[in-house]
Amino acid sequence: MKKVIMDVDTGVDDALAILYALESRQLYVLGITTVNGNVPLGMVNANTLKVLSLADRADVPVHPGADRPLMRTSEHVHHIHGDDGIGNALDDFSYSNQCQEQFAADFIIEQAKKHPGEVTLIAVGPLTNLALAFSKEPKLSEWLDEVVIMGGLVSEMGRGNKLPNSEFNIYTDAEAAQIVFHSGAETTLVSLDVTKQTLLSNRCIKTLEGRKYHDFVQQSTEVYRAFSKERFNLDGCALHDPLTVGYVLNNDFLKTKKHHVDVDTVSPLNYGQTVCDFNNLLGREPNVNVCLGVDAEAFVSHFLETLGREG
Predict the structure, then answer these.
(1) 3-class SS letters over 132-190
(2) What is the DSSP string of 73-118?
(3) What is the 3-state secondary structure (H, E, C) of 208-253?
(4) How many domains would you assign to the chain?
(5) 28: left (phi over 0), alpha (psi -120 to 50) or beta
(6) How many CB atoms lie under 10 A from the CB of residue 275?
(7) What CATH number does residue 278 fall under?
(8) Rounded distance, CA 73 to CA 76, Å?
(9) DSSP letter at 266?
(10) Residue 240 annotated to the active site
(11) Ranges for the Inosine/uridine-preferring nucleoside hydrolase domain (predicted)?
């Protein structure tokens, strides 16, 4: 089984990504690290512990990370993910698992050093923890197998979800993203260009009726789906974070090509923009695998099949 660490800011799609990874039976989740993002860190921690308990996987350790971006003030998106970050779907859910004391960045470094060349880091929130880890241990880029990131926008300019040209995870801590992109690690960016094509509709949710996660999926995504309909006129919510896990499970879901990508940390209008040099105008070494296409139907089918699996 492929060894992975998931770095999350557990809102709705993070929760679905965690369940997808665990129920795939293809990934050995060494641990989950948490970061401030969709909601404040305390909520992220609680949501992550609840989701693991829901999945009967309280054995997976949770390591709290950064409670703020490297340089900026925190921004949260309760209007998309609900008051608690997961649509209040687990308000009355009891759980006894607790977070570990070891800081997220230290856990990432420890595990990568312990399993050199074997660990894939799946990052589906702001990249603050990763930036801290790479800054503390320069050899981390050599020890990791790959870093797979949900974030950015490379070819659909003007269609961002934070600024016209910026995606939320990168925007939330663009300075951290810049550090990670230039870390030397093998990096794949699963951007809005492809994630917005993977939708969880009411019809999709109905296929989970009678299964373990149906009620959670339906309730947790209610606010998210309503927001997507109102703001983007989409029939369902995009499976941003689950698609990132999907790429690790089967990279045939996505078509990628390596290009030079940098992050704008200066312009008020374009802060957090992931600038991809498709035509190599800058003459710089390609550093990020960017996504140019997605087999959305195959991925969504696999996602639903995995969450609907019995036993």
Answers:
(1) HHHHHCCCHHHHEEEEEEECCCCCCCCCCCCECCECHHHHHCHHHHHHHHCCCCCEEEE
(2) PP---HHHH-SSSSTTTTTT--------SS-HHHHHHHHHHHSTTT
(3) CCCCCCHHHHHHHCHHHHHHHHHHHCCCCEECHHHHHHHHHHCHHH
(4) 1
(5) beta
(6) 16
(7) 3.90.245.10
(8) 10
(9) S
(10) yes
(11) 4-300
- Please report which confidence band the pLDDT of residue 235 belongs to, taking 50, 70 and 90 as the band edges: confident
CA dist 219 and 221 (Å) reads: 6
> Active-site residue among 79, 81, 115, 240?
240
Span 74-93, pLDDT tens digits? 999 998 898 999 999 999 89
Between CA 208 and CA 212 the distance in angstroms is 8
Residue of 86, 275, 260 lying closest to 170 (CA atoms): 275
Residue 249, token pair as written in the block: 């499970």
Q: Give the pTM.
A: 0.97
Q: Which residue has the tokens 């509709």?
A: 201
Contact 129, 66 (CB under 8 A): yes
Neighbours of 12 (CB within 10 A): 28
Tell me the CA distances in angstroms from 306 to 92, 249, 299, one per residue in order. 26, 11, 10
φ and ψ at residue 44, rounded to 5 degrees: -55, -45
pLDDT tens column, 16-28: 999 999 999 999 9
- Which residue in 143, 124, 231 sits closest to 133, CA to CA? 143
Residue 222 belongs to what domain range?
2-307
